[in-house]
Amino acid sequence: MTTAGTGRFGAILDRIEKETAALDERGRPADYIPLLAGADPRRFGMAVAEPDGTVYGVGDWRQPFSTQSITKVFALTLALSLDGERIWHGVGREPSGNPFNSLVQLEYENGIPRNPFINAGALVVTDRLQTLTGDAAGLIRELLRTESGNPAIDFEPAIAASEAARGDRNAALAHFMASYGNIANPVPDLLAAYFQQCSITASCADLALAAGFLARQGVRADGSALLTRSQAKQINAVMLTCGTYDAAGEFAYRVGLPGKSGVGGGIIAVVPGVCTLCVWSPGLDQRGNSVAGVAALDRFTTLTGLSIF
Ligand code: DON
Fold it and tell me: What is the pLDDT of residue 240?
């Protein structure tokens, strides 16, 4: 499904879709979550949402996929909105330079993860949300539903179970941080909430709309404030420096926008004041970022001249 001529960037999206179809190297789907391993790396979708809620896209832009780490942006948003600066007591905001599921820094940094977008940091954020509300994953799902206007967004229990079955590394991270007193909830409860959060399924259209508050300086779709202008800036900044893990430098170099990837093959990106983008293609590079997704965002900023730089 294409929408040439629809919206400000319709013709550019059509061009990117054609160029992406010609890409030979597509990467490989994540295989450490068995249910993601069978995804077809040739699938591709891309959506743009403008600040007024107009949304359009190309390819599989309405196809729901596994959001995975993209939910870390919405979890951090809720933590900042509910709890303000306190979240930074348990997690830093510096790039890690390490893979998203790495354990190495945690010991010599006393159980405080580098940032909220690597798995260890996301576990701290979900733990705090769980303490504050009793239902971290439910709250994240609600935020996605409200901001996208799609009440059908939901968990995918089979994906959560598939990840839990191979969850040893996340369990190790959580137990290790608990040994430093940086996790408040029982680790099995925290892991269940985290896997549920990661299992949320949504489309490029849903996610581009749901992230709209990041292009609107913290203002929700209904015009009310979710974050202060300053907090929206802070989240965009952490996405730029940490959103694509140990490839954040390369992503900033190629794309030049705040972005957040997930191992389901999705990436959201923000052009503050102008639009939010979401791309999906399940083939990943070595660092867990969608190959065609990064290429498409690279083309978008090159063809439009839009970036934060
Ligand atoms: O915890 C995990 O490993 C996955 N649920 C999420 C990781 C992820 O999406 C990293 N993204 N590139």
Answer: 97
Is the distance from CB of 83 to CB of 153 less than 8 angstroms?
A: no
Q: What is the pLDDT of residue 5?
A: 47
Say if domain 2-304 classifies as CATH 3.40.710.10.
yes
At residue 2, does pLDDT exceed 70?
no
Name the closest-CA residue to atom 4, ligand 1. 68
30 alpha carbon to ligand 1 midpoint, in Å? 9
Question: What is the percentage of the chain residues whose pLDDT exceeds 90?
Answer: 93
Residues with active-site annotation: 69, 72, 194, 245, 263
Name 113's Cβ contacts closer than 8 Å, sequence gap at least 6: 91, 92, 96, 105, 106, 120, 121, 123, 124, 177
Sign of the dihedral defined by the CA atoms of residues 118, 202, 296, 20, in that order: positive
- Expressed in angstroms and rounded, the spacing between residue 287 Cα and the centre of ligand 1 is 11
pTM of model > 0.70: yes
pLDDT of residue 4: 44
Domain range annotation of the chain: 2-304
Ligand 1 atom 1 nearest Cα:
119
